[in-house]
Amino acid sequence: MNVLQQWYTPQSGLYRTTGWWNSANAITALANYSRMSHTKKYLPIFANTLHAAQTGHDGFPGFINDYYDDEGWWALAWIDVYDLTGKTEYLQAAGSIFDNMQKGWETETCGGGVWWSKKSKDKNAIENELFLAVAASLANRAKMPEDRQRYLSWAQKEWVWFRDSGMINGEHLVNDGLNISNPAHCTNNGKATWSYNQGVILGALVELNKAAPDPALTETASAIAHAAIEHLVDGQGVLHEPNGAHTGGDVPQFKGIFSRNLMLLNNAFPDDRYQAFARANAESIWAKDRDAANHLGFWWAGPFDLADAARQSSALDALTAAAVVGRAKHR
């Protein structure tokens, strides 16, 4: 974690070497680590980013930009920080972001769902999984009954649409998005089953089940988690992406997102396979994907490739997940 923070820039509230949405994930990794390790060391970082990332040259006021998925990452980050600190300004930030995400819901194409971007027209898994996760999370934390009902209604509407959209394929994996060439009859686009698309939905369904318990939600989450553990790992159980893509700032972030959401599912519904997965991946990262300076790379099965904040925060998600799972098992 100390290595990750070497990339943190107080003036911008963001992380050098990576992008805007990745910085939200780094903040989330920092919050989860802080909770797991019972440290208050990084509380000033959260307060600084809440202010600086909105006002700096590279930031966006209110954490609102042209991409609904970017907004969702920041909303989830602030919900995690709220859970850690109990400070309402973080929950208010998440609620304000969600109000903007709502505007992306549209029914003429595919019968519903949130657009990926405010400029280009695509309906993909990730922004809709994030919309579900944020809505359900806010429903569980809202102070007023009417707010709770509003968020829950959005979460349930999103889930029914997502479940029936066709993005969950026959192997119980989530493909990248929808083919919208025929807006009245959208179909699964058959594109990559990225690890993070298998991850965000797990945390989202845990939150929705907490808000409105339904065995079908946990059955679906379990099916997706087990499918990912079966299809997206190597012979040693170490997570990889469905293809060799690994350049840029996006793909290196993905695997940690799966790991931390699998941890959330295991916290709610413990499973020996989730725990074995967490241990195997953390041990592989530490033994095979770490340099002498404790930089953590992209290839969790090794070899170490290069260092940046996306790779570091993603691998840290896996280490934190294994630590949390280990503690729970030995209580």
Give the gist of this structure.
This protein is an all-alpha fold and 331 residues long. Among the domains are: 104-232, Glycosyltransferase, CATH 1.50.10; 233-331, no CATH class. The protein has twelve helices and four strands, in the order αββααααααββααααα.
Please specify the SSE layout and strand pairing.
Layout: H1 2-5, E1 8-9, E2 14-15, H2 20-37, H3 43-55, H4 68-85, H5 88-102, H6 125-141, H7 145-164, E3 178-179, E4 187-188, H8 195-211, H9 215-231, H10 251-268, H11 272-288, H12 309-329
Helix pairs in contact: 2-4, 2-12, 4-5, 4-6, 5-6, 6-7, 6-8, 8-9, 8-10, 10-12, 11-12
Explain the overall architecture.
InterPro entries: 6-hairpin_glycosidase_sf, Glyco_hydro_76, MUG_Protein. This protein has twelve helices and four strands, in the order αββααααααββααααα. With 331 residues, the chain is mainly alpha-helical. Among the domains are: 104-232, Glycosyltransferase; 233-331, no CATH class. The strands form two sheets. A two-stranded antiparallel ribbon has the order 1-2. It is globular, with a radius of gyration of 18 Å.
